[in-house]
Amino acid sequence: MQQPMSLTLLCVLVCTALIHCTAAQMDQSPAKLEQNPCMNKFTCHECIQTQNCGWCMKPDYGDRPRCFLHTPKPEVCPESFIWNPDTSERILINKDLTLASGGAAWAAGGQFISAAAGEIVQIKPQRVSLKLRINEVHNLNVIYSQAEDYPVDLYYLMDLSKSMEDDKEKLSALGDKLAETLKRITSNFRLGFGTFVHKVPMPNVSTIPKKLEEPCPECDAPYGYRNIMGLSTDTYRFSNEVKQAAVSGNLDAPEGGFDAIMQAIACRQQVGWREQARRLLVFSTDAGFHYAGDGKLGGVITPNDGECHLNGQGMYTHSIIQDYPSISQINQKVEQNAIKIIFAVTQNQYSVYQKLSGQIEGSTTAILSNDSSNVVELIREEYSKISSTVEMKDNATGDVKITYYSSCLTNGPLTKTNKCSGLKVGDKVTFTANITVTKCPTNPRDWNQVIEIYPVGINESMIIDLEMLCSCPCEHSGSSGYEEHSSQCSYSGTLMCGICQCDELHFGGTCECSTDEHLNNGNKNMCRQGKNTNAAICNGRGSCACGRCECNYRPHPEEIIYGKYCECDNFSCERNKNLLCSGPDHGTCECNRCNCKPGWTGSSCDCSTSQDTCMPPNGGEICSGHGTCECGVCKCKSTDDGRYSGKYCDKCPTC
Known about the structure:
Elements: H1 2-28, H2 44-48, E1 54-56, E2 67-68, E3 82-83, E4 88-93, E5 104-106, E6 112-114, E7 123-124, E8 127-132, E9 138-145, E10 152-159, H3 165-173, H4 175-185, E11 189-196, H5 209-213, E12 225-232, H6 235-244, H7 257-266, H8 268-271, E13 278-285, H9 327-337, E14 339-345, H10 350-357, E15 364-367, H11 375-387, E16 390-394, E17 400-406, E18 415-416, E19 419-420, E20 428-437, E21 448-455, E22 462-468, E23 482-483, E24 493-496, E25 499-502, E26 506-507, E27 513-514, H12 517-520, E28 542-545, E29 548-551, E30 561-562, E31 568-569, E32 575-576, E33 579-580, E34 587-590, E35 593-596, E36 600-601, E37 607-608, E38 627-630, E39 633-636
Parallel strand pairs: 8-22, 10-11, 10-13, 13-14, 14-15
Antiparallel strand pairs: 1-2, 1-3, 4-8, 5-6, 7-9, 9-20, 11-12, 16-19, 16-21, 17-18, 17-20, 21-22, 23-24, 24-25, 26-27, 28-29, 30-31, 32-33, 34-35, 36-37, 38-39
Helix pairs in contact: 3-6, 4-11, 7-9
C-alpha cells in the first residue's frame, strides 16, 4: 500500500513544482500589449465609429494604417489632414425657471427676476444641440422646479352604469367642496365632466328595442362615452351637470371605460386641455374594463385608431365601429399628452387597477368609498403625491441610451435614479443625464434625431437636437478630401478621405489595375520572390494586386510587414531577455535582422563594443593580458602554466 501512496505524493510534488515554475515564468514575462481597437478599420466612417480613433486623410500616406489611436507626428500626418471629431454640446434655449405662474423667475445666482406674462418655465435648459460619437458618454444636466400656483385641469370621467347612481349623487353634493380644495392647490384651475357606460351591441347590453331605450327604470339609453362639460372655471355648472346626468344600464360586468379615456385624451379641443397646465383625469368606477380584442364579442373588429370621434353633442360616434383601445395605446396617448390618470376605484377593483397603473405612465390608483364620499380627499391626496414627485423620462430610440443620476434634495453623491420625491414649490432638482449612442443606425436618415427629456405629467420638455457622428465630411461630395476622377486614383476612381474608391473596371490602392484579364496574365508570378513559381505569393504574408504585393497588417500597429515581396518585417529579429534586439536603446529590427546602435554588436545587439569593463581598476592591459574582451566581459586564456580566472583574468591559482 505504501508504494502507490509514495507514487501519488511524488506526482503531487511534481505538479506543484510545474505550477510554480509556470507562474514564475508568467511573472517574468512582459505585460501583454493591449489590442488596438483602431486596427483593421479601412474607411473613415468605420474608424470614427470606433471609440477614441481618428483618421488621417493625407493622400500620399504610403502603407501606414490611417486609423490611429494615438495622434501621428505632424511630419507624418499634418493636423489639417486629421479627422478626429469631438463630442460637443451647445445650449440653444435656456430661459430662467419660473418661480410663480404670475411671473417671477429664478435667475443665475438664486436671484428672482420678472418672467414674461403668462410664460411658465419649469425645466431648464429648453433646447440643446448635441453632437455625439459612438460609445462616448456625455453628461447633460437638466434642472426642474415646480412653479407656484401652477394651473390645474381636472377632468372627472365617471362610470354612470346603474351601480354608480349613489356615487353620482355624492359627487354632485361635493362639487363645491372639490372646487374649494382645488383653490387651495392653485387659483388657476378648471373642472370638466364626462361619463361612460358601454358599447351598445350584444352581449354588452340588451338589444331588445325597449331595453335599448330604457335599460332600467328612469335610466338613459346606453352609450359609449359622452363629454358633458368641457374644462371650465364654472364650478356651479360642474355640480349641476353631475346632478342632472342620468345613469344607464348594461349586461356584463366590465365597462367601456377605455373608449372614454381614449376620447377624453384625444379630443383635446373639445375637452379643452390647456398647453401649460397639470392635466389630471380622474377615472371613477366600481367595475373592470374591456380592452382591445373584446369588441369581437359584439362583432366590432376594426382596431381603435386613437383619434377623436365626438359629434356636436359630445357623444362618441365610433362606439360600434371601432374596437376598444389597447393598454399600450392608452399609455402612448398619456405620454404624448402629458396627462396623469387617477384611477379612483372601489375596494374590490383596486388590485386590478393597481396593476393597470403600472402599465400606464404616471398613473396612480386609489380606493374610492362605495358611495364616493371620500372623492375630494382622495383627489387632494393623490394630487399631493403627484406634485411632490418628479420623474424624468425620454423618447430615445434603441440606439441611444440615457441613464439618469441625481442627489435629489440632498447634498450627497449622485445616485442612479430618474425620480425624486418630497418636493415643495420652488425646490430645484438637478438630474444628470448620461447620454450614449450605442451604435449608428443602419439608415443614415436616423443619424439626426430629436429627443425629448421630460418630467412625467408636465407638458414641458428639454429638446435635444442629436447628431450622431457616424460619417466623415470627406466621404461626401463637395467636401474637402473628396475628389472624383482624381489623379491620385489614376483618374479611375474617387479620392475619399485619402483612399481611392475605384470604378467597376479598376482596382488596386490607386486604381492602377484593370479588370481586363488579358492585362493581368502572369501578374501573380510577379509577386513571387526570385520569380520562383513554387514560392509562396508575397511570401505568404500579403496579397498580389496588379503584379505588386500588398502586405498584410498586423494586429499591433507598430509591427509592420514590408518589402517588395513582403519579405521583411520589424518584429522577427533575435531577442535578448525577451526584448527585441535587446531593447530600443541597443538596436532596431530592420528586415528581420538587428541593426545595432553605436556601442553595441551581436545578433541581438546584446554585446557592448566598449572595453572599459575589461580594464583592471588599477590599470594595466585589457583582461590583465591573459584574455580577450568579448561583449564587455573578459574571456580568460588557459596556458601551460595554468588557467587564469577572475573578472579581469588576474588570478591563476595553479600558476
